[in-house]
Amino acid sequence: MRLHRLHMTAFGPFGGAQAVDFDELSAAGLFLLHGPTGAGKTSVLDAVCYALYGSVPGARQSGQGMTLRSDHAAPGTRTEIRLELTVAGRRLEITRQPPWERPKKGNRPGTTVDKPQSRLREYDASAGSWKDLSRSHQEIGEEVKQLLGMNREQFCQVVLLPQGDFARFLRADAEARGKLLGRLFDTRRFAAVEQRLAELRRAAEAQVREGDAELLADAHRMQQAAGDIVELPLPDVAPGDTGLAESVLSWAAIARSTARERFTVAHCAQKAAESAQSEADRVLGDVREVARLQQRFTEARERAARLEEHSGTHGEARARMERARKAEAVAPALSLRDAAEAEHRRAAADETHARALIPETFADAGASGLAAAARKAAEELGGLESARRAEHRLAELATEREALDRQERADEDVLQDAESWLASWETTHAGHQARIESAQEGATRAEQLAVQREPARTRLEAARLRDQLAGDTEDAHARVLAAREHAADARAHWLDLKEQRLKGIAAELAAALVDGEPCAVCGGTEHPAPARKIAGHVDQQTEESALVAYQEADEQRAEAERRLGVVREALAAATAEAGDAPTAQLAEQAEELARQHAEAREAASGLHAASEALRQAEREHERRLAARQEAALRAASRAARRETLDREGAGLAEELAQARGAAGSVSARAAQLERQAAQFTEAAEAARLAADTAQRLKDADARLADAAFRAGFDTPQAAAAALLDDAAHRDLQRRLDAWQQEEAAVRAVLAEADTAEAAQQPPADLAAAEQAAADAARRVREAASARDAAARRCTELDRLTHRATASVRRLGPLREEYDRVARLATLAAGTSADNERKMRLESYVLAARLEQVAAAATARLQRMSSGRYTLVHSDDRAGRGRSGLGLHVVDAWTGRERDTATLSGGETFFASLALALGLADVVTDEAGGVRLDTLFIDEGFGSLDDQTLDEVLDVLDSLRERDRSVGIVSHVPDLRRRIHAQLEVVKGRSGSVVRQRGR
What we know:
The chain is an alpha+beta fold.
């Protein structure tokens, strides 16, 4: 990293704009930054740190950056830091503006706070210009951290060697020295390993305890399942106790054995109870059968008594059934007589009704007289047929006369309409001819405007395309910028993953090691401690995926740039075709031409309609003339037809007057005669039917009297009373059948031998037998329940024992894992007995780094002290604390090693300076070999004598051999004489300013 230029505006003590040219100062290799106390020497270094990381070192960073603004600055001047530097071969410019509390605009009272702003640019040597990379605070910070390989704390300790920090580091105890080294070398991953091992130990211990707790829970479940059958108590153990598994399994074996013995006893008891129940059930069956037969005999005796009691009623029912069977022989004659009587009554009623409709003069006439009257009415009706035809023809003549009248009125309307239309024919014809001529002129105008309209439309479309492509060009340019930024992010991500993989490459190589085969790096065949992959390890596939993502992003960037070129070419072509005229003006011209063209086309579109209208008008003129002529001819024909109709109607009217007589019409007279003929005919038929039904009723009475006498009845009425209807007959027969069935059933039961024998025995005691059987069944259920409980106890104990045995087998590997992890965790934490120096893993790593720092510092310390002092690392324990971060100095004059706290003030300074330079070299190597071409050393030179100061300056001047420049921040007057390249900070009432002097 090499600084080129620094621009500060309204920053710290600098009220105005100040510029520092580091290229000019670094030309001599060694330059001095001096000025009075409080002038702002350290503020120059703060500006460099703020430009890179967005914050200043230590306690000076407060108030969200609001305190960085100079109190001497004008209200309208914004604080800004701009740093130009080269890092990793890239020329960058970083601009940062902290938050700014400024007056509100528009002369409004009060102030407002502007947000902080950042910008990162890179110089493109091929284009000779700067290009923007990012304006994001976070992205710029990540880019700087990746390029430098250091965070802000490391940068401040390595590049900006602070006042007094390394003197304190030199005299600090192991704990304070460990905190500083931990920040510089970022050993958090080793602390994370310690923490991870501790977490694994706690997790393994929790799993073991959890397994023991489950085992004890199963033991308590076995105790609960066993109940009180086991006299031996459960072992008194807790989770984690030694021998817990063996104690639980031994107690489980005793419980299972006892439970099986109890199961055998319960099984035998159940068998005995089942045998007793079978005997009790057999006895109960015998008693129930005797009780059933005794009850059957008693019920049969009771049924026989009831039959004897109702024997009289049964005899009456049989006699009634016998009389009903005799009356059934008379039933057909009774039915015929009833039917004949009903038929005669209907015929007499019909005759009375028919005679009421005919004249009274025929009231006493017989059937033959009524038939003769009907024939006479029918003959008179036949004589009216000719009069009916005349009446119908007269109606047709009236209808035809009305049609002639309607036709005459319609012809009068046609003649009037035709005369009115023909009167305006000349005017109508002239109007149609004028519209045709106007449409022809519009068609000619439309053709002329169409020729002018197409070029205007082409220019308008080109202008619109020009405007659209202008916006597309801006969008394409924005996408190009975004694609470039995305490609830069993808490249940074790939490089970061590649660096992470290189850091963990040892674990990746160790994964391929095989015992007995040589290592690909060192060639050794023994691999005592191969590196292991840590959490978040980056493998080759992940790195290659990041590389592919970067290549795709770069291809997208190239594609975006190609599309931008295509859009720009299309924009140039559209601009050439459309010209410089605004789109709105071209649109107005095109719209005006389109409007005129539309009007002309609309006018021309009426040509066909006008021509068609003229043709229709001419056809209508011809039709009107023809209609007028036809109406005149029809009027002459109607007059002749009227005379003919009048003559025929007069003759028919005279004929009808004679035929209808007193009736209103011939039809009325015919209807009257038809009714009379029908009434006489109906009356004659009713009289004949009444006489026939009277004779049939007399014959039926004679047959009925003969049938009743032969059946044994004195009168037909007695035979009718003895008949039964179907329902009564079925009911009586059912009662007789039920009596016979009951009588037969009672005799059968009383004749059974088993029933009679049971009746001779004493009454059966069914309740006692049922109680004995219930007691036997209860004893069986109790024995079965006891056996089932014993079986469930054995099954549950077997299941829990099997589960406990599986838990013991499962806990075996967990216990081994816990022991192994616990040994590793205590070893890494420094609490194990195997760790003799009580050194934590992080302290061990830091001790290795401190040993490298001491070796690098000694190379310069020996020159500064004329070969007297050497810095060495010590891993001795300090008192009762832990060891690993001790730092001693070896005095070559005495040959003894002593503590660094015994050095004098001047010796402490150059020892601290040597330590700082050595630490800078180690941190630089740790950061990936990024060159730090510019260093700053802040104060401490006033404690050196002239000879030591010369030696120190010689050491610093030797840094130029590595192409480095060193800036010394000091107000020692003698340094101004020794160092010619100077940057002076002069303070005043209006703020500080910088003055620069070269070689």
